[in-house]
Design goal:
The complex is a heterodimer of chains A (615) and B (280). Chain A has 615 residues and is mainly alpha-helical. Chain A has a single domain, classed as Cytochrome C Oxidase, Chain A, CATH 1.20.210. Chain A is 60% helix and 2% strand. Chain A is built from 17 helices and 4 strands. In chain A, a hairpin with a 2-residue loop joins strand 1 and strand 2. In chain A, helix 5 packs parallel to helix 8, helix 8 packs antiparallel against helix 9 and helix 15 packs antiparallel against helix 16. The two termini of chain A are 22 Å apart. Chain B has 280 residues and is α+β, with helices and mostly antiparallel strands. Chain B is elongated and about 100 Å long. Chain B has a 5-stranded mixed sheet with strand order 3-2-1-5-8. The chains are: A mainly alpha (615), B alpha+beta (280). At the A-B interface, helix 5, helix 10, helix 11, helix 12 and helix 13 of A face helix 2, helix 3, strand 7 and strand 9 of B.
Chain lengths: 615, 280
């Protein structure tokens, strides 16, 4: 069977019938707002994350302005900033601390995790394993609808007396316990704790759903090792979330009590402050609890994108993934190691230096599965037939920026080197190379790749490439010089570097970073414009525009509730490109046909009896 | 063109190093840096080559090849060996710089406290011994206050001559300085960029910080842990002096403390005032 019959057959019309059969009786708000359809929920995650991406980005630009031009009024909007933010347009030090806290918190909890896990998890898992929806659709709906209230609660910090939370996204007590305030004071920090607690719940709800769906709802014939790497990565990520996030919830509950009720889980006795509390707690305990979740959370933010990038690269290099199983084991290895390395955030925290040795060695081991992944991606490019689509360009950017981010990670993994670079801009450079250069390029890649299936329209490819070009250039202009700032000793989270003589030579670097950041921020408007424009005026998408193998491309152009218009049976692995004995250079998972595996190659045969699972 | 490329020589951006173990830390940084540069050019080179050589052409098709276990094992074992070597070498330096039992015997002992937003230091004074305070006696913690951050017991005679300085301190050159650091409110981090020293100070716990500086001069201390709106201004200065200058400086402080105390007839009765005086 060739796919052309699929594309031009009656399948599309059938798909629409299917949608109408099930849904003409649902009111509009059940269809578009409180929907249980995984694709609608995915789009909701996408829109909320895009919104918060710009909120978090705006906060970042305020930070950058202050660092490059300390003491100068913010241009254009300086005059209209509220008095609690700025005096005469100059950002206040207190507001600066709120900015960096909100930037980090929003980008992590409301942008990257919802994009990576919420959006792609929802969209890809049911479609790529060939099923109609999640195992628990109502729970899925709830997992999204906890996000907007959580976002509002965090942003409501603006209306409290102390403003937004201001203890950094890591919220270390005693600062985050706000010992100076009276008991039962609701501050931005209190709201922050509640908000992050709620998004944590949203994550857990999504994650148990993903695990249940992957284990129970795979299409006929699909073994675990027939799943695309995207699904593998999301599945393993979901396991990390279910194991890690409850620990964060426990830590946040204790922090909330310290903050609001003045208990002393994390507060030692005899703090010098006006307020009363019990004492006897240990501040470092919070760091252990926090990083036990938040280090795995780093992998929550990047593993799904590693999966997505693998799929995109295989499709556009027209080649099987090099070492599919090695890729799966590397993801699992990173996930496991992620749980035993949290102490590397705490080398200088006052944790026993003996533990520094343990955590340093376990951390350095993570470089091994990471390099396995990089080498396998390079192996995938080898002897491919590489098409530079916008999705592929972003995937390649992911790999290359992940190499830089991974290498800078080795510096801080080495505990003695970390003594100097800890809490400097070197760390900021590293986290942005991994979270923006890695995760966000992966997210862009996924958006360009699956947009046709999400909205039934093609994204504009020319503007996609322009967006990629400007993002890639300005990203490096913004974040690469941060390594230099870090080596110069520039501490992170400081309001005015000019206070220090040893930082005086770094003003020019700070300016370059800020100019890059402004350009980077405005480049993202291209993406939003493209997404909105193509939704209405984009070319109609064919069923399988990229000639890919995985099951989502078996679904109609713009699948309705229930996804598929045919019965799906899986006959082979997800990456059969360039198989000998076939006319097409791709061989979808759902197409009937037999093959044999000969020394790492797959060869199509006509005899059904000789079918092997080919990887 | 050379000037342009010097931007990429990241090692040139370090502030001058003045501590004994700082040289080791810098050279370890340099080793990892050059290894990273090598890996960077290797992987980017291979990737760039593949992207050009295997770019799309309509008359070719991708090579159906699923991977090779020998290759996989090779590129698992090689990075393991490389990174294990970096890890073990790092650990050796880590043990020598940070392990509690490897802290050298102190030539000078100083207490340091972080507070919002500044640093205070306590020297043992003329007798070379601290009086009872929150560091050497846990029960003295209840004496800690904004005016007496170290929780000094003003009734203890051996503490009469202890010297307090604020936002500045002095250490002798070529001496093992051992500091015990803590905080009176939130977390701070004791960061001496030129000495390659960084240690968070945590309220309720005393951290050991040691270093040995080989160059005299004035340098800066910064706070490296977000501690509130005034975090950025939590700056202090320190001066590395020759031993004789240091002794002179210490004598002068001792004289100040003594002068502040002499008008008091009975030390126990006016203990609080004495503490305040010595704070200045």
């Amino acid at each position: 069977m060739s796919t052309s019959t699929l594309q031009h057959g009656s399948a599309a019309e059938h798909g629409h019938d299917h949608e109408h059969e099930h849904h003409h009786d649902l009111p509009w708000y059940r269809k578009y707002v409180f929907s249980t359809d995984h694709k609608v929920i995915s789009k909701q995650f996408m829109l909320s994350s895009l919104f918060f991406l710009f909120v978090g980005g705006a906060f970042a630009l305020f930070i950058r302005w202050q660092l490059a031009y300390p003491g100068q009024a913010v241009p254009i909007i300086g005059d209209i900033l509220p008095a609690s933010w700025a005096t005469n347009g100059v950002i206040s030090p207190e507001f600066y601390a709120q900015l960096l806290t909100m930037h980090g918190s929003i980008m992590i909890f409301f942008v990257v995790i919802p994009f990576a896990v919420g959006m792609f998890g929802n969209f890809c898992i049911p479609l790529m394993i060939g099923t109609d929806d999640m195992a628990l659709p109502k729970l899925n709906m709830w997992s999204f609808w906890l996000v907007p209230p959580a976002g509002l609660i965090m942003m409501a910090g603006f209306f409290t007396e102390t403003g937004y939370a201001a203890a950094g996204w890591t919220s270390y007590p005693p600062l985050s316990a706000q010992i100076g305030l009276a008991t039962f004071t609701i501050s931005g920090q209190t709201l922050w704790t509640i908000s992050v607690f709620l998004v944590g719940f949203s994550s857990i709800m999504g994650a148990v759903n993903y695990v249940a769906t992957v284990l129970n709802k795979r299409a006929k014939g699909m073994k675990l090792f027939d799943m695309p790497l995207t699904v593998w990565a999301l599945f393993i990520t979901a396991i990390i979330i279910t194991l890690g996030t409850p620990v964060l919830a426990a830590g946040l509950a204790m922090l909330f009590m310290d903050n609001f009720l003045h208990t002393s889980f994390f507060l030692p006795d005899n703090l010098v402050t006006n307020s009363t509390y019990f004492g006897g707690g240990q501040p470092i305990l919070f760091q252990h609890v926090f990083w036990f979740y938040s280090h795995p959370a780093v992998y929550i933010m990047i593993l799904p994108l590693m999966g997505i990038v693998s799929d995109v690269m295989a499709t556009f290099a027209r080649k099987p993934i090099y070492g599919y199983k090695a890729m799966v084991f590397a993801i699992a290895g990173i996930a496991f190691l992620g749980f035993i390395v949290w102490g590397h955030h705490m080398f200088q925290s006052g944790m026993n230096p003996l533990l520094g040795t343990t955590f340093m060695l376990s951390t350095i081991v993570i470089a091994v599965p990471s390099s396995i992944k990089v080498f396998n991606w390079l192996g995938t490019l080898w002897r491919g037939n590489i098409q530079f689509s916008a999705a592929m360009l972003n995937a390649l950017a992911f790999v290359s920026m992940f190499i830089i981010g991974g290498l800078s990670g080795v510096f801080m993994a080495s505990a003695p080197v970390d003594i100097y670079i800890h809490d400097t801009y070197f760390i900021v450079a590293h986290i942005h190379y991994v979270l923006f250069g890695g995760s966000l390029f992966g997210i862009f890649s996924g958006i360009y790749y699956w947009y046709p299936k999400m909205f039934g329209k093609m994204l504009n490819e020319t503007w996609g490439r322009r967006h990629f070009f400007w993002t890639f250039v300005t990203f490096n202009l913004t974040f690469f010089p941060m390594h230099i700032l870090g080596i110069g000793g520039h501490m992170r989270r400081i309001y005015d570097p000019n206070v220090y003589d040893f930082l005086k030579g770094l003003g020019g670097v700070n300016e370059v970073v800020t100019i890059g950041a402004i350009a980077l921020g405005f480049s993202q408007l291209i993406l939003v414009g493209n997404i909105l424009w193509s939704m209405k005026w984009g070319k109609k998408a064919p069923r399988n525009p990229w000639k890919a193998n995985t099951l989502e491309w078996a679904a109609p152009e713009h699948p309705g509730h229930g996804n598929f218009d045919m019965d799906i049976t899986v006959y082979r692995g997800p990456y059969e490109f360039g198989v000998e004995g076939r006319e097409d250079d791709y061989w979808p998972q759902w197409e009937k046909g037999a093959s044999v595996s000969v020394t790492h190659h797959t060869v199509a045969v006509t005899d059904d009896a000789k079918t092997f699972g080919a990887h | 063109m050379d000037g342009f490329f010097s931007v990429f020589d990241m090692l040139a951006w370090f502030p001058e190093n003045i501590s004994t173990f700082g040289q080791e830390l810098d050279s370890l940084f340099a080793i990892i840096y050059w290894v990273s540069v090598a890996i960077f050019f290797l992987t980017f080179g291979v990737m760039g080559y593949f992207l050009v050589k295997y770019r799309y052409s309509p008359d070719r098709r991708g090579y159906n090849y699923h991977g090779n276990n020998v290759v996989e094992i090779t590129w698992t074992v090689l990075p393991t060996l490389l990174f294990a070597a970096i890890g073990l070498y790092s650990d050796d330096i880590w043990e020598r710089t940070k392990y509690s039992k490897r802290v050298p015997s102190a030539d000078v002992e100083i207490l340091v406290l972080g507070k919002q937003f500044g640093w205070v230091f306590l020297y043992p004074g003329a007798d070379g011994a601290f009086g009872r305070n929150a560091h050497n006696d846990r029960t003295a913690r209840s004496l800690m206050s904004a005016t007496n951050p170290f929780g000094r017991d003003t009734a203890d005679p051996s503490g009469f001559d202890d010297v307090v300085t604020e936002n500045q301190f002095v250490v002798p050159v070529n001496a093992n300085v051992v500091m015990r650091g803590s905080s009176i409110d939130v977390l701070h981090s004791f960061f001496l960029p030129h000495a390659r020293v960084k240690q968070d100070v945590v309220p309720g716990t005393w951290m050991t910080i040691w270093y040995n500086l080989f160059k005299t001069g004035k340098y800066e201390l910064a706070c490296a842990e977000l501690c509130g709106g005034g975090h950025y201004g939590m700056r202090a200065e320190y001066e590395v002096m020759s031993r004789t200058d240091y002794d002179k400086w210490l004598d002068a402080r001792n004289a100040e403390v003594k002068a502040a105390r002499t008008p008091q007839p009975a030390p126990t009765a006016t203990a609080d005032t004495a503490a305040v005086a010595s704070l200045r």
